[in-house]
Amino acid sequence: MERSEVGALVRSAVDGDAAAWKAIVEGLGPLVWSVVRAHRLSDADAHEVYQTVWFRFTQHLDRIREPEKAGSWLASTARHECLKVHRQARRLLLTDDPQMLDTVSEGGEPEQALLETEEAAAQGERVRRLWQAFEELGDRCRQLLRVLIASPPPSYQEVSAALDIAVGSIGPMRQRCLRRLRARLEARGTV
């Protein structure tokens, strides 16, 4: 979503355009979720923060000085709300580990079903190793990579606001994090 488009949608939403509001939520919702997921909150806390961010956005919608930077505002607000939850809980809960479900296709030949099951199991093992290596990275690397894999991908300004990282540091930090992840995967023989 382009900044100019975001700005126009925010101005329309201020004027009461429900379609503009819906487009904002659909377009920037994944960014908010990526920031929330990067802070590794429990499901309940994550949903609460997500709703709080949008509630705060509606409260401040008519006071946002630069509507085209609404994505940065949302990312920054999401980050602050996540940090507030962490401070209140005084602990970090690890949840939502990805799990692969192996399914056998209905019908077809038993040999084909066996091959598909073995392929899915191998893929599941590769994914498990990837996430295991990912979990061994430092907190900053995990947060950055989680935000950067959001769909649609956030701008570097939004990432900067979400994680409090200078825009010029995001690319080099991303490269270092990916090199570390690759090294861990190579050490496991996964790559």
List the helices and strands and how they pair.
Layout: H1 3-14, H2 18-38, H3 43-60, H4 70-89, H5 110-135, H6 139-148, H7 156-163, H8 167-187
Helix pairs in contact: 1-2, 2-3, 2-4, 2-6, 3-4, 4-7, 6-8
- Supply the number of helical segments: 8
Which outline best applies?
globular
Strands, count: 0
Compute the separation of the termini in Å: 34 Å
Class of secondary structure makeup: mainly alpha
> Overall pLDDT, averaged?
83
In percent terms, what proportion of residues is strand? under 5%
Main β-sheet, in a few words?
none
Helix content: over 70%
- SSE ordering: HHHHHHHH
How large, in whole angstroms, is the Cα Rg? 20 Å
Q: List low-confidence stretches.
A: 100-105
List keywords for this structure.
mainly alpha; globular; 191 residues; single chain
Describe this protein's structure.
This protein is mainly α. It is 71% helix and 0% strand. The protein has 8 helices and no strands. Helix 2 (18-38) crosses helix 4, helix 3 (43-60) crosses helix 4 (70-89) and helix 4 packs parallel to helix 7 (156-163). Residues 100-105 have low confidence and may be disordered.
